[in-house]
Amino acid sequence: MKLKVCGLTSIAQMERAHELGVDYVGLVLYAGSKRSALPFTEAAADELERVGISKIGVYVNEDAAKVMADTERYNLTAVQLHGDESPEYCAGLRDRVNIIKAFRIGADTDIDALVAPYHAVCDYFLFDTRTEDYGGSGRSFDWKLLEKALVDKLFFLSGGIGPDDLEKIRSFYHPFLYCIDINSRFETEPGVKDMAVVATFLSELHASRSGHVQNDH
Ligand SMILES: O=C(O)c1ccccc1N[C@@H]1O[C@H](COP(=O)(O)O)[C@@H](O)[C@H]1O
């Protein structure tokens, strides 16, 4: 089971995440977010490029040329497209970078119909909660909806996952669950994580999943 910590805004916290063994950090490169990592000074961008941990850029309806430029500049492993990006948009970027398409899920969402056009043009899916905003709401959705859907692509599970959700994660099995994505519920303020709480969560996540062999590649 992989762990992504999203919404970090300092190089020191990214390096700490790397030391802890977090798999991915998410940089919110969307100016409309409370935890936007923008703007960078040139010096910070240079430092960011060199941080050892795999970095995922989080975007909302961004210009594709900007996403491509950021991918090179910051050495991004993948981009998380959290807005209303079309399948064509995803296909246009995919030969340059891994694509994680985020879907916002509500009680009445037809997940199969929503994801079908994206199946061939993404590397991963990500499931978040549908709210009035694009993401980072701290609110969760009913994971049982994923069990009922025909999801057959590796996915990131997100949306209000908090330090107390380990038992819930332990009880949720899905053959395509790849990564747990944590964000606002681990913050002391927007953009600043409590890394001690992240460390405890990570070690308990690993301990609780040690009996599972699910998608640990
Ligand atoms: O974190 C944000 O501010 C954000 C803004 C716009 C799009 C995505 C954003 N973050 C992503 O939202 C999900 C859920 O976060 P939370 O746990 O509910 O706080 C997560 O995947 C973040 O990557």
SSE blueprint and pairings:
Elements lengths: L1 E5 L4 H10 L3 E5 L13 H9 L3 E6 L4 H11 L3 E4 L5 H7 L4 E8 L5 H5 L8 E6 L14 H5 L6 E3 L8 H6 L5 E6 L4 E3 L2 E2 L1 H14 L9
Parallel strand pairs: 1-2, 1-8, 2-3, 3-4, 4-5, 5-6, 6-7, 7-8
Antiparallel strand pairs: 9-10
Helix pairs in contact: 1-8
Describe the structure.
The chain is α/β, with parallel strands linked by helices and 217 residues long. The chain has a single domain, classed as TIM Barrel (Alpha-Beta Barrel). It has 8 helices and 10 strands. It has helices at residues 11-20, 42-50, 64-74, 87-93, 111-115, 144-148, 166-171, 195-208, and strands spanning 2-6, 24-28, 54-59, 78-81, 98-105, 124-129, 155-157, 177-182, 187-189, 192-193. The strands form 2 sheets. The protein has an 8-stranded parallel barrel. The chain has a two-stranded antiparallel sheet with strand order 9-10. The protein is globular and about 45 Å long. The mean pLDDT is 93. Bound molecules: the ligand O=C(O)c1ccccc1N[C@@H]1O[C@H](COP(=O)(O)O)[C@@H](O)[C@H]1O.
Radius of gyration: 16 Å
The H-and-E topology, N to C, reads as: EHEHEHEHEHEHEHEEEH
Q: Would you give the CATH topology?
A: TIM Barrel
* Main sheet attributes: strand count, strand direction, barrel closure: 8 strands, parallel, barrel
The top-level CATH class is Alpha Beta
Helix content: 25-40%
CATH homologous superfamily assignment? Aldolase class I
Contiguous low-pLDDT stretches (5 residues minimum) are none
Quote the distance from N terminus to C terminus.
8 Å
Number of strands: 10
